[in-house]
Amino acid sequence: MDHNVIDYIIRMDLVSKKIAVEVKIMLLYFPTKFDENEWTVILIIIFNILLFRFLPKRLPKEITPLIVLLSISFPQIIDHTIGAAPHNYYDITDSKKLELFDILLYAGYPAFGYLFVYVFDWFHFEKIKLILYFITWSVFAAMFEFCLVKLHVYQYNGWKLIFSIPIYLIVLSITYLFYQFAISYNQKNHN
C-alpha cells in the first residue's frame, strides 16, 4: 500500500476521534428531575406558539422573523457573557451543565420582543410616553424574571434582580432602534 494512503487513513482516524470527542463535550444533558422549571419552559413555548398563531398579523412579514431572531439573540449573548464562566452570575434550570431545557428556553423569548414591537406599532408612542413605555416593559420583564426565579428557571449566583432593569432598558432600546431601521428600510424598498 502506498504510504500516502496509509498516512491519509491514519489522519482520517485521528480526525474522526477528535470529532467524536468534541461531540461528546457538547452533549446536552436531560434534567435529573422533571419539575416546575421544565413545565414553565414548556408553558412559555406553548404561549409563544399560540401568540404567533392567533395574534392578528400587524408587522410586515419581512420584519417579524428579524424581531424573532433579535429576541433570541439578546438572551443568548447575555447568558454566554454574564451567565457563564468566568462570571457565572446565574444558572438556567437545575444544573450547572448545559441542559436540553436551557436551549429550549430560547424558544420562549420571541414573544417578549415581538409583543414589545407589536404594542409600540399599534400606539406609536412618542417622547415621554415612549420613555414610560420602555420603563413599563422593563418593570414587566423584571417581574416576569422574578417569577422565573421563584419557579427555578433561573438560579442566581450573585446576580440581583435590580441588575436586570438597566439591561432590559438597553435591550428594549436596541430593539426599538432596530425596528425603526427595519421599518424605514422596508418602506424605502417597497416604494
Description:
The chain starts with a helix and ends with a helix. The relative contact order is 0.13. The protein is mainly alpha-helical and 191 residues long. The chain has helices spanning 3-25, 36-54, 64-81, 100-104, 110-123, 127-150, 161-190; strands spanning 90-92, 154-156. It is globular, with a radius of gyration of 21 Å. The chain has 7 helices and 2 strands. The protein has a two-stranded antiparallel sheet with strand order 1-2. Helices cover 70% and strands 3% of the residues. The longest helix is centred in the last third of the chain and has 30 residues, at 161-190. It has one domain.
Write the layout of secondary structure elements.
Blueprint: H1 3-25, H2 36-54, H3 64-81, E1 90-92, H4 100-104, H5 110-123, H6 127-150, E2 154-156, H7 161-190
Antiparallel strand pairs: 1-2
* 3D shape: globular
Q: In what order do the strands lie side by side in the largest sheet?
A: 1-2
Report the major sheet. Answer: 2 strands, antiparallel
Q: What is the end-to-end distance? A: 67 Å
Q: Please report the number of helical segments.
A: 7
DSSP E strands, number: 2
Share of residues in helices: 55-70%
Classification by helices and strands = mainly alpha
Strand content: under 5%
Uncertain ranges: none
Spatial extent as radius of gyration: 21 Å
The H/E string reads: HHHEHHHEH
Q: Please, what is the average pLDDT? A: 89
What count of domains describes the coordinates? 1
Oligomer state of the chains in this structure: single chain
List keywords for this structure.
single chain, 191 residues, mainly alpha, two-stranded antiparallel ribbon, 2 strands, 70% helix, globular
